[in-house]
Amino acid sequence: MQSNLTLLKSTLSRVKDAALKFKNPGFSSYFFQKAEDNLKILEAKGDSVCPQEVQKLLQEYQELEQILNRQTTVQNLYYNDQPMVDK
Prior knowledge:
The protein has helices at 2-19, 25-45, 51-78. The chain is an all-alpha fold.
């Protein structure tokens, strides 16, 4: 149980790292804050989290990490912070 909880916390940390790779600050801050909030909730619950919930969250955030890694590549190809219309 404790090793899964530690693994979940490290997965959330990797999700935050993946979120920071977005060039778009909106995407970056949304996913970073989502992972940060869930990490705070997890730490507040402490050891009272049931093993089934930890396993479910672990799978969910591993999938999210993989999605974010793919999406950062695609989204960063097309992100442009320069205005597209000249006045």
